[in-house]
Design a protein that fits this description.
The protein contains 13 helices and six strands. The chain is mainly alpha-helical. The protein has one domain: yeast vps74-n-term truncation variant fold. The strands form three sheets. Strands 1-2 form a two-stranded antiparallel ribbon. A two-stranded antiparallel sheet has the order 3-4. A two-stranded antiparallel sheet has the order 5-6. The longest helix is centred in the last third of the chain and has 18 residues. The protein starts with 30 loop residues before the first strand and ends with a helix. The N terminus is likely disordered. One of its GO terms (cellular component) is cytosol.
């Protein structure tokens, strides 16, 4: 029977109407079951149920979030790093930044590791190798919903027969290889694709600007509050002077691994040379102190186990420390407060031997040497 609006009335098991026959609806049990219990239709709007239908993908997403310790954030780490590097009104990156492309490829591995898609190979012989030379394997090839992440994951899955190291994957994804047989593993136009993804999420918009000889698509910031939130998180984490992590430095409550994500954001932004864009409101002394703390954070997390840096620092940090000594400033470093941050990250790990977090440490070690690589 059809109504005037074109809707058709569906027959539901356990109900009857004067105009209906006794033929049961296909796929819906009607009447008593073999063990004597009566099977009825659950969740029907005709029987007063509160839910008519549900998408099984929603249930899968809830189960995945609970398994990974929280829901996935709105923006990936790659998108946040790119957003820090973009000029708000002009919508393009600095033409002189050679570090961001390599750093974004490292962020892809970090994001896949945080989503529990990849990890280091569990092999006792591999533990003797340097962290950056240890092999990467795919532990879950389920798609993430992010185009670039899924493309990288598919390439890694296809290379399972000949697994590669952390530094090897970053080089291949960046196109930094002399092997012509591996050139197809390069992820092309990552910055432009990330920007278009941010346009789809309503964070950026697309405009066309004329640069004398040619026109180029630019992506100015459309949602200023989203970028301000990222800047606030980075500044809050790097200007804190206590071991407690300030709530303003973290993403929303319930986000998966939000302390680890905050650490990876500032470290990747530091390696990509876009972190200074977040320090525009700080004084010169506060900027130098924030950079020094970021260098200490990167040194403590670019090793395994976390917090065992034993005084190591990046080349930029050593130069900054020598400048402070030359200016007569011999104040002690804030390593104690950084170790408090290490303890918060360890609470988000699946035990001391978490192979996913070991992969993150290896990526951060590669990014800490980015000055010498480039």
């Amino acid at each position: 029977m059809s109504s005037a609006g074109g809707l058709s009335r569906r027959r539901v098991a356990g109900t009857s109407s004067p105009n209906s026959d006794d033929t049961p609806t296909p796929g819906v049990p009607n009447g008593p079951s073999p063990n004597g219990t009566v099977v009825t239709h659950a969740g029907s709007a005709f029987e007063g149920g509160s839910k008519v239908a549900c998408d099984p993908r929603d249930l899968d997403q809830v189960q995945e979030d609970s398994r990974h310790g929280g829901r996935m954030p709105r923006l990936t780490i790659m998108e946040e790093v790119l957003l820090l590097g973009l000029k708000d009104k002009h919508g393009y990156l600095s033409f002189w930044n050679d570090s961001i492309s390599y750093a974004l490829r490292g962020c892809i591995l970090i994001e896949l590791a945080l989503r529990r898609r990849i990890a280091l190979v569990k092999d006792s012989n591999q533990r003797r190798s340097p962290l950056t030379d240890r092999l990467v394997e795919v532990i879950d090839d389920k798609q993430t919903g992010e185009t670039i992440l899924d493309e990288a994951l598919k390439m890694m899955k296809g290379q399972e027969s000949d697994r590669m190291s952390i530094s090897g994957w970053i080089d291949l994804l960046s196109g930094e290889t002399w092997n012509v047989m591996k050139i197809g593993y390069q992820l092309k136009q990552v910055r432009e694709r990330l920007a278009k993804g941010l346009v789809d999420k309503g964070v950026l918009r697309t405009e066309k600007r004329n640069f004398l000889l040619f026109d180029m698509a630019t992506h100015p910031v459309a949602d200023v509050r989203t970028k301000e939130a990222i800047v606030t998180r980075a500044v809050s984490l790097l200007t804190a002077t206590t071991s407690a992590v300030p709530p303003s430095a973290l993403d929303k409550e319930g986000t998966q691994c939000r302390v680890t994500r905050a650490v990876c954001l500032v470290c990747a932004s530091y390696a990509a040379s876009v972190l200074d864009n977040a320090f525009g409101r700080l004084t010169y002394e506060d900027r130098e102190a924030a950079f020094q703390r970021c260098d200490e954070v990167l040194a403590e997390f670019a090793c395994w186990p976390f917090g065992s840096a034993s005084g190591t620092a990046t080349s930029a940090g050593r130069r900054r420390e020598s400048m402070k000594i030359g200016m007569g400033n011999t104040a002690p470093s804030g390593r104690e407060s950084v170790l408090g941050l290490v303890q918060e990250v360890k609470r988000e790990m699946n035990g001391e031997g978490d192979l996913g977090f070991q992969l993150i440490a290896g990526v951060l070690e590669v990014l800490s040497k980015l000055d010498s690589l480039l």
